[in-house]
Amino acid sequence: MQTQFKRHQKVKLLIDPDPEYIEYQPEQSQPIKKGMIGKINILLPNGKYHVEIIEPETEETIAYVPVDEEYLEATE
User: Fold this and answer.
1) Integer angstrom CA distances of residue 68 from 2, 13, 15, 29, 42
2) What's 15's DSSP letter?
3) 2: part of which helix (H) or strand (E)?
4) What does the longest C-alpha to C-alpha distance in the chain come to?
5) Neighbours of 11 (CB within 10 A)
């Protein structure tokens, strides 16, 4: 299976993810929106990417989100 993105590659979300599938880190509740930056964590069995969403100022992980390949854009 050919994939467009590699593990730990920085990407930008092109959609607002479904809130039902967002996995927030403890003590984090910042809304995850279109345009946020993250890193590819793993490729899921259903073909989606598990994306680690990063706080831009602190570089800390705030959430994990499953996203289809067509809704991601490489930033590097």
Assistant:
1) 14, 10, 10, 23, 12
2) S
3) none
4) 37
5) 23
Structure tokens at 26: 């403890």
- pLDDT, tens digit (0-9, with 9 covering 90-100), for 26-72: 877 788 999 999 999 999 999 899 999 998 888 899 999 999 999 99
Strand order in the sheet with 61-67: 23-24, 61-67, 49-54, 37-43, 10-13, 72-74
C-alpha–C-alpha distance, residues 29 and 46, integer Å: 26
The residue count for the chain:
76
Higher pLDDT, 21 or 76: 21
Residue 44: phi, psi to the nearest 5?
-80, 160
Alpha carbon separation from 14 to 27, 34, 62, 67 (Å, rounded): 25, 5, 18, 10
Tokens of 25: 């880190």
